[in-house]
């Protein structure tokens, strides 16, 4: 790496059609004027960027619709172009990037590009995935569209929009369901985009060393179950629901310190043999020979390099792991996860 500047933080903003992404983005732009915006437009003629308020930072459009492989191909040159143009002064400098996906995009190929392409990964740092959820239509969308379920499952921050239009019962039921799809991701209520950007953008999900607080948040929920050979406990989430039934979340803790080699080979087996079935892996591990915890992240088939935290966030030093699966047979999932023990 021949560049000296710290990597530029990137946030991926996703959420179903009309769930309030652009409204939120406009609010961020007002407070963070030196933000570069990348929009992934659906259709031949982009419209969303016209709904954006004036910003001092550059705006780039990813054309080619919302087909994820197309986006994956265009995101990388777009980021390079922004970086080089700012470096040679042909566009204003920017200190952060927000990528807004279309409402029906699968965000995982974009995450893949940000983390796995070397040129990009050495200059940009994915801070997290923010998913907007319409408090009025959210349940209906989760019922009808697997994309909406996936967007929720991979989120690091869950933003409930239009809470002014929904009843408290509606919001409560939606949150219960969303919490089962993605246990541990912090939830934030928003009306018309009004929110402190720091609460949303500083997820640091992929750089946990900078933020033990963040780890603490997804460990706090008390939903972890012990893993013991022959007594595996998995949470099957929404009984009888035809769509969510395809998504399961496994939250487990392991009492004994673990061997890294065993963990790595179990995780690797999980994501490489079942890449289409794994949506998200998050874990804080107590490894043999280490005094501080190690955090691991995976999104689909990608396993990110483990990061050691400077300290345990609390007294509880058990390893904890969240695995969110899609269409993965329960028995297979349990067998793979049991190999951690
Ligand atoms: N009442 C109310 N309206 C909202 C809120 N957030 C967004 N809206 C409205 O919902 C509509 C859709 O919001 P957008 O921000 O365009 O949604 P989007 O997710 O960018 O939409 P797509 O780009 O089509 O996916 C707009 O009319 C917004 O004004 C909110 O919190 N309360």
Automatic annotation (TrEMBL):
InterPro entries in the cross-refs: CobW-likC_sf, CobW-like_C, CobW/HypB/UreG_nucleotide-bd, P-loop_NTPase, Zinc-reg_GTPase_activator
Residue span(s) of domain CobW C-terminal: 247-341
Entry GO CC: cytoplasm
Pfam families, per the entry: cobW, CobW_C
Reactions mediated catalytically: GTP + H2O = GDP + phosphate + H(+)
Highest taxon, organism lineage: Bacteria
SUPFAM superfamilies: Hypothetical protein YjiA, C-terminal domain (SSF90002), P-loop containing nucleoside triphosphate hydrolases (SSF52540)
SMART domains in the cross-refs: CobW_C
Alphabetically ordered keywords of this record: Chaperone, Hydrolase, Nucleotide-binding
GO terms assigned for molecular function: hydrolase activity; nucleotide binding
Family: Belongs to the SIMIBI class G3E GTPase family. ZNG1 subfamily.
Role noted for this protein: Zinc chaperone that directly transfers zinc cofactor to target proteins, thereby activating them. Zinc is transferred from the CXCC motif in the GTPase domain to the zinc binding site in target proteins in a process requiring GTP hydrolysis.
Record-given protein name: G3E family GTPase
Organism per entry: Sulfurirhabdus autotrophica
